Amino acid sequence: MTHTVFIDGSAGTTGLRIAERLRHERDIHLLTLPEAQRKDLSARLDAAAASEVSLLCLPDEAAREFVQHAPAATRICDTSTAHRNAPGWVYGFAELHGQRAAIASATRVANPGCHASGFIALIRPLCDAGALRREALLTCQSLTGYSGGGKAMIAEYEAESRPAALDAPRLYGLSLQHKHLPEMRAQSTLAHAPLFMPVVAPFYSGMLVSVPLFAAQLADGFADGARLAALLADYYAGEPLVRVQPFAPSASVATLAANALAGRDDMQLFVFANGDGQLLLCALFDNLGKGASGAAVQNLNLMLGRAETAGLVY
What we know:
Layout: E1 3-8, H1 13-22, E2 28-31, H2 41-49, E3 53-56, H3 60-69, E4 76-78, E5 90-91, H4 99-105, E6 108-110, H5 114-129, E7 139-145, H6 150-158, E8 170-171, H7 181-188, E9 195-201, E10 207-214, H8 225-235, E11 242-244, E12 267-273, E13 278-285, H9 289-304
Parallel strand pairs: 1-2, 1-3, 3-4, 4-6, 5-6, 7-9, 11-12
Antiparallel strand pairs: 7-10, 8-9, 10-13, 12-13
């Protein structure tokens, strides 16, 4: 059986990576538009009507416009921020309990944000198990490669005479109102969004999301690293794309490189602890993989009834 798929916005970073993954899949036919019609809403809607699923790789406003005019029966996976907390949309993080079946049957799926994916993967299991109070006040730092900024930022970083400031990691989102915060709060089921500190650094792709915790923030029986690692391992048991690394004292792991999983579509979770009541949870993945296009292909596979990991690297 051949599935027809339309990628709206296939010239952007996420769209290109999705197309790369699907182009060699024998049961996928990618429906494309001539260059002159790629911004023609009517032509794009016709392409969506002729496809089983449409993947939107558009700016938020363009995604909202498309969805506003698309028939309710049109199956859409939107990679923008526009619909991640919208009523009627299924959040596309398949490994969260109950989400896989919801994605498979949905007509509207919102692909998660990259930073949000790491934070939610770490915190949602703790909230579900009662290990962490939903009223907890958390902080989160996320280190990302510059590809997350799209074509303009990629060109800026790869210019022959780039500014010296781009040679160092740069803290951004200093308004403390990053666009991923609403889904980070809602999908982790926290009452409050975390204090979020994103950092972009001079490497192409990869992401390392870190959440520090004090033992006093955790419920009785969960306030040590081994117990938290076991909780996460139980939650993600059998998942091919989210794997929890065995717990080890912090001193046994010298460093974590944010680009260690670049080019892959899976995620690794770590728990570190120092024995003095301090813990550190980390999610390592590719911002373009499990943080964007890899997750979109995973959701597409579920929506089409294909093998969930078809076309993915892990």
